[in-house]
Amino acid sequence: GFDIMWPENVTLTAGDTWTFTTFKDENASASYETEDLLTGFQGSISFDKGDGSGSVPQGVMGATFTLNNNLYGDKYELGERQRAALVPQRRATEGTLTLEFDDLDIYRMFVNGTAGDLLISVTSDEYINNSSTKYSITFRFPEVKFSGTTPTIGGEEIISTDFPFTALYDDTLSIPDLRITLTNSQSYI
Description:
Helices cover 5% and strands 34% of the residues. It is mainly β. Strands 1, 2, 3, 4, 5, 6, 7 and 8 form an eight-stranded antiparallel sheet that branches. A hairpin with a 6-residue loop joins strand 5 and strand 6.
């Protein structure tokens, strides 16, 4: 069930021994959660706009994001039956926030090209093994820049607009473009 990719400068010889290590604790019994503990109804989004006000809750109607590792695994060369080595590429983390257009703060960030720190957190109502810690998952985008178009008004209904964003590496705090933190009862994934 694994795709194994070899570096370009490795010569495979019959009888070679390769060792693969996993994160699973060999002494632990493999038991996984069977309940769906996390839903979007338990989510919250906070945003640090970089203006010194700190992280504040943000009303969001919808949020999506994609992490693309940009691995081009279908790289073949003429005269070769095997794939060529994977070319290292820069990954891209992009997403969209759907907001009701009633607050100009994020729109100003879009117009001015200002970056912010976005945190999406989903926390369960259930506690882990009767402890004081709840199941949760957080997605942190430390350096978000918005793009897109100016919203238009079509009538008297709710004015909602999409704010596409690109997440960047935070040079100041040395945080990658996306940091995922999962809190559950497992010591391995």
